[in-house]
Amino acid sequence: MQFTYINLSSEKSWKNYRQMVVLIEQRTRKILKIRQSFQFSVIMVDEDRIHEINRDYRNIDRPTDVISFASQDQLSIQVKESTTELGDIFINVKAVREQAEQYGHSLKREFSFLVTHGLLHLLGYDHMKDDDEKEMNQLQEEILSEIAQR
Asked: For the chain, which domains are there?
């Protein structure tokens, strides 16, 4: 497992959440039975930056909580390369705080949820159809159940 954790936000406290990414990656690998090595980035950004990213790359002119950019359109974990580059997960630190308060759970839980959500997108999961959304929601809960409960 390899990942890069970058805090580009003005809040330095987010560096303390790096260990949560390790736990999420390990749990995801176990649940999805992934043996191959992969790498990805988690980038913490301020609301203005994620707004720019959302506008420039998704043509949606508003901030969001998390954006994932997969390195490959169709990911096959069976790729024979030594390490597969999955892509980048951008997380809006303001949204983490606001959503944790809104949903009545900890920053740790909300941060972990957004990383898990982003990582599943990088692994090819989506929630555009009802069945896909149900599957993704179940996986998120299973991954988070031992890491950051509600």
From this structure: 2-144 (3.40.390.30)
